[in-house]
């Protein structure tokens, strides 16, 4: 084994991200939506990969997500806001590639550019056989169904709440249960 080779996360690989976006766009189409804006796709993409930020840990949808291999107690949920920012920065580039490949189309929907999957994109996404593809499709379907009726403003506000580690039952709950509460800082300035 070569020690000098960098370790790459799947999200660092363009083909992985493109495949994931195709699955997401297929889920958007499956909800009857005529596409989604760049901003909305950014939210859907990240939250579909981290569905327990949106879905309570109990209930039917949570059971479906667990069966698909997602775990609400993964410690990575505690760093969600940092990962959201870096992931969102790549979405426009990746969507441009999908448009160039003919797997995605962009159109004007009420003054906003909306992206939707093409027939070629649907045919390609139907060929993905990895377990993760099935898992991500399940999560994307649940997340898009839950979020598509929120206004853009409400989606931004709700996502900001979900990404806060200290929110009630927030994503850092698993981390806090391992580490305990954060140290309290004194209101008095340090004197020394």
Descriptive tags:
single chain, globular, about 190 residues, 3 strands, three-stranded antiparallel β-sheet, disordered C terminus, mainly alpha, 8 helices
Number of helices, counting only DSSP H or I runs of 4 residues or more:
8
Tally of strands:
3
Shape: globular
Q: Which sequence of SSEs, written as H and E, runs from N to C?
A: HEHHHEEHHHH
Helix content: 40-55%
Q: Give the class from helix and strand content and strand pairing.
A: mainly alpha
Q: Order of strands side by side in the largest beta sheet?
A: 1-3-2
Strand content is 5-15%
Regions with little confidence, pLDDT below 50 for 5+ residues: 171-192
Rg, rounded, reads 19 Å
The major β-sheet equals: 3 strands, antiparallel
Distance between the termini: 52 Å
Give the overall average pLDDT: 80
Question: Can you characterise this structure?
Answer:
By secondary structure, this protein is mainly alpha-helical. The chain has helices at 14-30, 38-49, 60-67, 80-100, 119-125, 131-147, 152-163, 173-179, and strands at 36-37, 104-109, 112-117. The protein has a three-stranded antiparallel sheet with strand order 1-3-2. β2 and β3 (112-117) form a beta hairpin. The longest helix is centred in the middle third of the chain and has 21 residues, at 80-100. The chain starts with 13 loop residues before the first helix and ends in a 13-residue tail after the last helix. The model is unreliable at 171-192 (pLDDT under 50).
